[in-house]
Specification:
- The longest helix is centred in the N-terminal third of the chain and has 31 residues.
- The protein has two domains: 32 residues; 131 residues, Ctag/Cox11 (Pfam 04442) (Sandwich), CATH 2.60.370.10.
- It is built from one helix and ten strands, in the order αββββββββββ.
- 17% of the residues lie in helices and 38% in strands.
- It is an alpha+beta fold and 183 residues long.
- A five-stranded mixed β-sheet has the order 1-7-9-5-3. Strands 4-2-10-6-8 form a five-stranded mixed β-sheet, with no helix packed on it.
Amino acid sequence: MVVAAGCGVFVACMVGAAYAAVPFYNWFCRTTGFAGTPQVAQQAPAQVLNRTLAVRFDANVAPGLPWRFEPEQNEIRLRVGEVAMVKYKVVNEAARAIAGQASYNVTPPQAGAYFDKINCFCFTEQVLKPGETREMTVVFYVDPAIANDREQDALNSITLSYTFFRLPEQPVAEAPDTASGRL
């Protein structure tokens, strides 16, 4: 009986750990910049350095999503600490409304700890009507703290990459059947 109870507690703990793993990993990546996860900032830094970096922009659409997605410019040069705004354009090429959501990362991965977004369209559901075109912006800067990381001295370019994924369609509630008198 003790062994069965111990096994039951172990299984319950493992199931709980499995559910907690995704939010914990997400929090860890956002906090540390691990795996190229950019940071989220509320405001611009107080300092702008003379060091410049090239920031490249990549736009992808996952298979099964009939959208065209592209940055308005492929690359900009900016000074470390300087706030930049870049626009992306997305077009629904399907004959019906479709919902999508973008995820992002930064390469090289170690640059994620210094790439701070002030405003972004990522992780927000976007529903586009047939043929609809939408312009979306991302506002960001490279944190001046990068100057204190000697391992980043040779870094001269960062790529911000977005991928739009199709969201599952939500079931539509059935209308009441008024013709038969049933509601």
